[in-house]
Write a structure and sequence with these properties.
16% strand; 365 residues; binds 5-amino-5-deoxy-1-O-phosphono-D-mannitol; globular; 5-stranded parallel β-sheet; alpha/beta; 45% helix
Length: 365
């Protein structure tokens, strides 16, 4: 049932404040402001030498964000790869490692094969899945379920942000277990996570503006997405969403990579989406925007009020997001990124919930 929405995707985008809240309530304690992930002992965060993450598509991008979090908040090295490569790489895996597989369906063939490879090599296995009775869930030592509810649209939206919510709680608790985060730091981070449903509601209020921007974008043959830090995987996700839904060719890049090649693509026909909340490296992103602006590229900047004030007028359009703590940013900024591809696809007249050539669950290799 699509409720009052035209597509399942729109409904699922709008469900996010609620389902992120449900998911968080399983993994953090809102009262004590502590992460409290059921089954976390199985991961052995106090003993392991490394976390391995493997997944496909959007779930892989959630894993890429988590890599930044595990490194920063828990000082844990992370190995991550798309499952279709990981499973064939013959990479060394050992018993003192924790391998984490992320999958909405829990049935993705390559992800399952990567899981089995790690299991054979003696690693502890954890899964972030949305479907509790899935094969990946069954074959894991510990399951961290996302409480996103059934996701019908082929494009992953609410599953992605719920995966991020679980992964953030995991990384924060790992940080406490490993003695990296103090109680105050943990409480600040958990407090930030607890605010995400409210920030998501505010982010959705930008929809009319995004719809208008998307109308002009729907005429472009190509688009670029740029971001740094945890917003770099979001740039990759934005490009994937635009490709799969609107069939417009798009690429995501780490903003600092621009001058190593993709800047050659910039001209007045190239829309460039920059995902950049104001943070410690914001000024670097402003330089990248100036390089794009100097070549006539059309910049759409997703940032907060401070970022808008310090953007040096490089952007043609600015979508002003709520001011959010760093750990919340990739989750909150995922919403406008999803809305851009949704509305562009609607203008293009493509089949939003069932894009051509795609299957919801890829159970073949
Ligand atoms: O069910 P899974 O999370 O394992 O699926 C992984 C990918 O197939 C999936 O995220 C795909 O990339 C989506 N179409 C993205 O919107």
């Amino acid at each position: 049932d699509k409720g009052n929405f035209r597509h399942f995707m729109a409904k699922e985008i709008h469900e996010q404040p609620e389902v992120i809240g449900h998911t968080l309530s399983r993994y953090i304690d809102f009262g004590t402001r502590k992460a409290s992930v059921p089954g976390i002992e199985t991961a052995g965060f106090d003993k392991i030498s490394r976390v391995i993450i493997s997944a496909c598509g959007t779930a892989y991008y959630a894993g890429l964000v988590a890599k930044y979090w595990f490194e920063k908040y828990a000082r844990l090295p992370v190995e991550i790869d798309v499952a279709s490569e990981f499973r064939y790489r013959e990479t060394p895996v050992s018993e003192d490692e924790f391998a984490l597989f992320i999958s909405q369906s829990g049935e993705t063939a390559d992800t399952l094969a990567s899981l089995r490879y790690c299991k054979q090599n003696g690693a502890r296995i954890g899964a972030v899945v949305n479907v509790a009775e899935s094969t990946i869930a069954r074959e894991s030592d510990v399951v961290f379920q996302t409480i996103a509810g059934p996701e019908i649209g082929v494009a992953s939206t609410k599953a992605f942000t719920c995966q991020l919510a679980v992964l953030a709680a995991l990384a924060v608790q790992a940080g406490r277990i490993r003695g990296v985060l103090s109680e105050e730091q943990e409480s600040e981070l958990v407090g930030a996570l607890a605010e995400i449903p409210g920030y998501a509601v505010q982010a959705l209020k930008r929809e009319v503006e995004i719809e208008r921007l998307s109308q002009s974008l729907s005429k472009a043959p190509n688009a670029l997405y740029l971001g740094r830090g945890t917003n770099f995987p979001l740039a990759l996700e934005g490009a994937l969403k635009l490709k799969e839904l609107s069939y417009i060719h798009a690429e995501g890049y780490a903003a600092g990579e621009l001058k190593h090649g993709p800047i050659a693509l910039i001209d007045e026909n190239m829309p460039v989406f920059v995902i950049a909340p104001y943070d410690g490296i914001y000024s670097k992103t402003v330089s990248n925007m100036q390089e794009v602006a100097a070549r006539g590229g059309r910049i759409v900047l997703l940032t907060d009020a401070r970022g808008a004030a310090e953007s040096g007028n490089a952007a043609d359009d600015v979508v002003i997001m709520p001011d959010v703590p760093e750990i919340a940013a990739p989750i909150v900024y995922a919403l406008p990124v999803q809305l851009i591809s949704y509305h562009t696809a609607v203008f293009m007249g493509t089949d939003v919930d069932q894009p051509r050539n795609l299957a919801k669950s890829v159970t073949v290799e």
